[in-house]
Amino acid sequence: MATYCSIQPNSIKHNDECIFAVRPEERENFFLDAYRHFGLAYPKFHKMDRFCQLGFLTALPIVPAAGKYDPAKTGLLIASKSGSYFTDNHYFSRVFAEEKINYSPAQFTYTLPSAVLGELSIQHNFQGENYLFLQSEYNFDLLRDYAKSLFHDQKLDTCLIGWMDYYGPDQFLSTFLWIDRSDLINLDTIILNINKTCFDYGKATVS
Amino acid sequence: MRSSYITAAEIVSPLGIGLTANFEQVKNGASALRVHQSKAARTEIFCSRINEAQEQQYDAILATEERLTKLEKMTLVTAKRLIDSTNFKPEDSRSLFILCTTKGNIDLLFQPESTIPENRILFSESAGFMARQLKFKNLPIVVSNACISGVEGILLGRQLIAAGVYDKALVVAADLVTDFTISGFYSLKAYAKGRCRPFDQDRTGVNLGECCAGVILNHEADKDTDMKIIAGISSNDANHMTAPSREAKGLTQAINHCLQTVGEDKAPDFISAHGTGTRYNDAMESKAFGQSGLETVPFFSLKGIYGHTLGAAGLVETVISIAALRDNLLLPSVGFQKAGEDVQQQPITQLKWSPMRRFLKTASGFGGGNACLMVEKIRA
User: Fold this and answer.
1) Residue B233 and residue A155: Cβ atoms within 8 Å?
2) B328: distance to nearest CA of chain A, Å?
3) Does a structural domain hold residue A36?
4) What CATH architecture does domain B4-218 belong to?
5) Ramachandran angles phi, psi of A141, nearest 5°
6) Residue B214 forms beta bridges with which residues?
7) pTM of the model
8) Considering CB atoms only, which of B144, B165, B242 is closest to A132?
9) CB contact under 8 A, A127 and B249
10) Residues B139-170: pLDDT tens digits?
11) Residue-wise pLDDT tens digits, A185-194
12) What 3-state DSSP class applies to B227?
């Protein structure tokens, strides 16, 4: 059964329910506050860049417990426009340009937009097909077409597909969807509904 | 399932423009690796770079008023050669452009003097610009999955053609050598002292390289088509961000998938390995070959010739391997001298003629990604 999670500045939505929200003036540490709110204990979270933290928080509510999916047949397809743009700038201005001799290896790793694939795969033991696409506008067409064809070829049984962007503390968006084979027949409708609710949802603020 | 034929293959590298020119150099034992003074490494390192004279050659070929980055020039020259040598029509609604890159136009970062629009630092914007230059109607797709990007780009095109979403795909991969990327590999202590030595007992790391290569995939064969993709898949180790699985789990899984797909009678005649020259990667790959029952299959790494070209590597090496398969030549693994304890099999050391039908291409990268594909020669 398809389930989705969407994060926009101020709020996290799981299926049709808001599971975390803050006032705009309080969102400086939005990801960290969410992490604490959910009572998480995953120390690696604090080492991740913002792009990976966003992916981490979006995947969390929708990935079933270990044992409920076959890791070797679980795929991870993520699309983005921003990719690692924010982290590249950070690495360049804070780490690289200062001409330190010991650049932090961890920080460089996060300048790869695909670092989020690695982090999510390690956390959830996803071992199947894994892709990071960069596209010019928010859409699920490629994710849908590609996931469908991988299911069709028996390469996958379950898959996390999603769109995510991170440009800065006030500008980010993610929508992840967990699907299995039984969702394929309704996938177009599911995606249409998510697109609708996610875009409307972003306009509502917490009073 | 619809097939994917490779109807054209091209490369633009420091060794020259075009697959024929490059393969001549490869056969002659050339290497594009040169000494380079890097601010980021604080020492002399080896890498393979495209020089200013070569960039001017690209300008002359492209003859455009548009301002282009180095990566865009390499990509457009490669794309133009691919399109001109076939009946591929970018403007067709069934044609797709896939760009594979790890860091794209990273040299545009913090370049206030640059006259190139700033948004072209975004991979999708640079790819969109190039797609318009090439007259594509469909929006392009960029694949960026570190060092497996090139192989994954081919697999994406193949899969979308098989599913009937597109009929043809132009898949091009490119990456640059910049202080940005050198700093990263240096910080990870993964940069070689001297020349890289894939699979050698004394290997110390990578040499980075810049290069561009591409293929055209088509659901139908042209009259001269001689190559077809017969299997491919990606996987993830789900183990570590920068080190491969010690058990070579992900790569073994991907190779086994390919071997099972094609069947026992279609075993590869050679393996075009990733072979970066780092201790962990090469030992892991050697282990995966053994675990997949391929311990006696000849293999080589091309990193000693082109360096590690990051997201381009998988495509660069597929293209050179296509030329090798076409000419029935096993290529030497440049830089290898002596096998060590952690690499059980010895790569090819001498150029050798041998009748061949198919090869396996492997790739592994940061983030735990692995990808492989198999190419078959459909006529002698």
Assistant:
1) yes
2) 32
3) yes
4) 3-Layer(aba) Sandwich (3.40)
5) -60, -50
6) B10, B172
7) 0.97
8) B144
9) yes
10) 999 999 999 999 999 999 999 999 999 999 99
11) 999 999 988 8
12) strand
H helix runs in chain A, sequence order? 30-37, 50-59, 85-90, 105-109, 115-124, 141-152, 187-201
Q: List CB contacts (< 8 A) between A112 and chain B.
A: 102-103, 144, 146, 366-367
- The number of distinct structural domains making up chain A is 1
The CATH number for A118's domain is 3.40.47.10
Mutate to test the interface with B, among A89, A90, A121, A145 (most CBs of B within 10 A): A121
Question: Does the CA dihedral A120-A126-A127-A131 come out positive or negative?
Answer: negative
CA within 13 Å, CB half, B183: 23
Residue A99 in any domain: the answer is no
Q: Is residue A13 part of a domain?
A: yes
Whether residue A14 is contained in a domain is answered as yes
Counting every residue written for chain A, the total comes to 207
Instruction: Please report how many Cα atoms fall inside a 13 Å half-sphere around the Cα of residue B328, on the Cβ side.
Output: 7
pLDDT of residue A203 exceeding 60, the answer is no
Residue type, position B138, single letter: N
Contact B212, B174 (CB under 8 A): yes
The CA distance from B309 to B211, in Å, is 6
CA gap B108, B102 in Å, rounded: 14
Q: What is the dihedral of CA A97, A100, A104, A109, to 10 degrees?
A: 30
From B217's Cα to the closest Cα of chain A, the distance in A is 17
- The residue type found at B315 is L
**E strand or H helix that includes residue A168:** strand A158-168
* Angstrom distance (rounded) from CA A17 to CA A164: 19
Tell me the sheet residues that pair with B76.
Answer: none
Closest approach of B254 to chain A, Cα-based (Å): 9
The Cα of B189 is separated from the nearest Cα of chain A by a number of Å equal to 9
CA atoms B17, B21, B23, B25: torsion sign: negative
Per the model's pLDDT, the better-predicted residue between A97 and A119 turns out to be A119
* CB pair distance less than 8 Å for B162 and A149: yes
**B20 contacts: CB under 8 Å, gap ≥ 6:** none
Question: Top-level CATH class of B227-377?
Answer: alpha beta
Sign of the alpha-carbon torsion through A51, A56, A61, A67: positive
User: B253: closest CA among A125, A79, A143?
Assistant: A125
Name the residue ranges covered by the structural domains of chain B: 4-218, 227-377
Query: At A74, phi and psi to the nearest 5?
Result: -110, 125
Helix or strand run (H / E) with residue B251: helix B249-262
> Do residues B145 and B101 lie in contact, with contact meaning Cβ atoms separated by under 8 Å?
no
Q: Would you list the DSSP string of B67-111?
A: ---HHHHHHHHHHHHHHHTS---TTSTTEEEEEE-SSTTGGGTT-
What is the tens place of the pLDDT at every residue in B9-56?
999 999 999 999 999 999 999 999 999 998 888 789 999 999 999 999
Output the CA–CA distances (angstroms, integers) from residue B295 to B234, B338, B341, in the order listed.
Answer: 21, 17, 15
